[in-house]
Amino acid sequence: MTNIISVQPQVVYGHVGNSSAVFPMQRMGIEVLQLDTLQVAKAPRTDEDWTNYKSIERGIATLIEGVDSIHELEHCGALVSGYLDSVKQVEDLYLAVAMLKKRNRSALYVCHAAMYLSNNTQLISDDVKEAVIRDLVPIADIVVLNQHELAVITGSTFSTQEQVIHACEKILELGARYVIVKDLQILSGELDTVLMVTLRNSFKVEWPKFEFTEPLLGLGDLVSAVFAASLVNGVNPISAFSHTCNATYGILKITKEHESYELQTVAGQYEFVEPTYELPVIKIEKTATQ
């Protein structure tokens, strides 16, 4: 069995960070090495929600060294990271990725560049944001982000599909193999779009937009986890993208049916194994400007 390291926050209540990512990967047959970067009482939707949190004191790199000391790092097929609390955590994660790839050259680093909410609210300080862009994005094999994070990382503005793809290609030029833009809302007012851009092609999946009473958090963590688990399980990238989108749509639909704004990953756990829906993956034909 191949393992995945998940470096993310943990919430006491709700499904964000490791609380959103770990269980789906386990349901997909992955042994998850869970490394919590901080603990929060609940999913932080306002500044006040950050008053009840505790940062993990032991460094990420130190904990990864502990895993390496028992010769388990070589069995890890991927490392997935999400929200990071400090520049020190970014620096430690950089070292952790280097250690993993030294032990397993084929291991993937999946960077969920969690910096902004879908409403453009900034989650992290400017120095952490700059460190993520400078140190982590260039070493990632897969980058998962929303449209605001894409704009900030690439210094781009976009209003068309072609412009979004071009911005993603800027990240690919840094070394990534796949860029996934989730919750892309500029292409249609009635649909949510998930876009994947590879070195050769671009693909998208669309579904009807859901409205929730509060901001829905943890979606990027979920997408990163399911995509990573699919790849580690040997699924080809396009099929992994399809499975990720189908599972995510199923969870969103169940969450809406429960009239909740916390992702219903437990109630909808079958979606990670055998999704209810089969949404079409649309290959985007290149235009003259691309």
Automatic annotation (TrEMBL):
Pfam families: Phos_pyr_kin (PF08543)
EC number: 2.7.1.35
Gene Ontology MF annotations: ATP binding; pyridoxal kinase activity
SUPFAM superfamilies in the cross-refs: Ribokinase-like
Ranges of residues in domain Pyridoxamine kinase/Phosphomethylpyrimidine kinase: 97-246
Signal peptide as annotated in the record: none
Gene Ontology cellular component annotations, sorted alphabetically: cytosol
Keywords, alphabetical: ATP-binding, Kinase, Nucleotide-binding, Transferase
Protein name: pyridoxal kinase
The encoding gene: pdxY
